[in-house]
Amino acid sequence: MIKIKTVKGVREFYPEQMALRNYLYEKVRAASQSFGYQEYDGPFIETIDLYAAKSGEELVKKQSFTFQDRGGEVVTLRPELTPSLARMIAAKQGELTYPVRWWSFGPFWRYEQPQKGRTREFFQWNIDIIGVSSPEADAELIAVAATFLRSVGLSPERAVIYVNNRRLMEAEFDALGILPAKRLDVSNLIDRRSKMESQKWDEYALELGLTETQRDGLKEILGNFDLWKRSEELTRLFAALDVLGVKDYIKFDPSIMRGLLYYTGTVFEAFETSGSLNRSLLGGGRYDNLLEDVGGSPLSGMGFAMGDVGMGIILKEKGLLPEFPLTPALVLVTVFDETLLLKSYALASELRKEGLNAMVYPEVAKLPKQFKFADKMKMKVALVLGPDEVANGQVVVKNLSNGEQSAVARDGWVDTVRKLVT
RNA sequence: GUGGGCGUAGCUCAACGGCAGAGCGCUUCCCUGUGGAGGAAGAUGUUGAGGGUUCGAAACCCUUCGCCCACCCCA
């Protein structure tokens, strides 16, 4: 047999994995909808130009799946949703009702080195509120994230949402006399604060061209967890988060920066507290110029994204996943022999007509084999329709979890089954 | 792109230069109208691939492919 391998970095969704994906989708939808967000989606394939217009061209060229289609156009499997969202908003900018609250859960592709929590093909939850810029709107979106975390069993002891504000940090950098040209380096430096040895970090800061005074000032800022009090935005944000009932998830952390691409205000990132995943579970922030590159007047918004891979790993690892049924049909209609095969089929049809999912063993086989099948599929009920039952107008209904069974008359058996599966 | 680890039965792994094995799973039977537990028997391999060293290679060496992990990066 020839083995044909899968493409590097993709996953195959066997029913078990599919159940997890659908579970995440359900929870994402529930959290989004509970705050009134509408579901949308963009194309999975876009022109490269849509992404090249943005600041991270280097990343786009290196880390996206890009190819020529048969017509010669260079297209890309979408690595993110925000540019598509921006274009969709811009196209109908005048006719939308603001604030726009939209969410999406779909596939994305990034040509990166696969490792724990990272694949080349993954699903991502994207959610944005557009056309408002109040700290209270920021709070709402963070509350959506917290609501989701809570709904999948990630309590505040298990997950934390770290919050910071870019405007606040900019002001602090200004006060230290760190020039705007250095901001990217500084942001990078801050990201490494926890990853690097303290002494190495000190040296690295100077290598990047900071003065000792600036470096020490920066350290002071990063260690100051009351810094938020200087920001009206954050003060209001935290007050709103309190009222929204999710304050227990929130921690101010001045070292949360989130790259430097388009965030301008509040930024946040959620981490699982045991640290078994060394990346964030979700993250996002406020941006001011969503439509800049796609032709539209500036619109402010706030959004975040969450990948399915890391979240799936954590939920599995922490034992937070519910047990997914192996099969949607919890009832097996056994087949007694060849002459009764179609009677069993008819019996199953009756069940389905009553809204109960049911399977029939699709060929004549020994009963033990059929029961073993039902058992392996973790089904709850087995029906036996043999010559005796047919003669008496009955069906044997067997409860597979305790082994009890009884012959039930035709007019009552559907209810008996229904009671057992619910 | 850089570094590390690992490829042996369907799965998890052992054997580390001397007959390729175990557990789980699978098949059959104990049991021709009833599953889970138990007992008995059985099947299953290009040891990722190619080359080399050796009397002898799953093991050692070279090449190659694949997977995992970390770094880089993370829209």
Please explain how this structure is put together.
The protein is of the alpha+beta class. It has 15 helices and 16 strands. The protein has helices spanning 15-34, 48-52, 57-62, 82-91, 135-151, 166-175, 183-191, 198-207, 212-222, 232-243, 308-317, 341-353, 367-376, 387-392, 413-421; strands at residues 38-39, 45-47, 66-68, 74-77, 100-109, 121-130, 159-165, 250-252, 263-272, 282-287, 301-307, 331-333, 358-360, 381-384, 394-399, 405-409. Strands 1-5-6-11-10-9-7-8 form an eight-stranded mixed β-sheet. A hairpin with a 5-residue loop joins strand 3 (66-68) and strand 4. Helix 1 runs antiparallel to helix 5 and helix 5 (135-151) packs across helix 10. The longest helix is centred in the N-terminal third of the chain and has 20 residues, at 15-34. The mean pLDDT is 92.
Write a concise keyword list for the protein shown above.
eight-stranded mixed β-sheet, 20% strand, five-stranded mixed β-sheet, alpha+beta, 15 helices, RNA-binding, 422 residues, 16 strands
Précis, in short:
This protein has helices at residues 15-34, 48-52, 57-62, 82-91, 135-151, 166-175, 183-191, 198-207, 212-222, 232-243, 308-317, 341-353, 367-376, 387-392, 413-421; strands at residues 38-39, 45-47, 66-68, 74-77, 100-109, 121-130, 159-165, 250-252, 263-272, 282-287, 301-307, 331-333, 358-360, 381-384, 394-399, 405-409.
Task: Please indicate the percent range of residues in DSSP E strands (runs of 2 or more).
Answer: 15-25%
> How many β-strand stretches?
16
How widely separated are the two ends?
Answer: 44 Å
Large-scale geometry:
elongated
Structural class: alpha+beta
Radius of gyration: 28 Å
Number of discrete helical segments: 15
Strand order of the largest sheet: 1-5-6-11-10-9-7-8
Low-confidence stretches: none
Largest sheet: 8 strands, mixed
Percent range for helical residues?
A: 25-40%
Average pLDDT number: 92
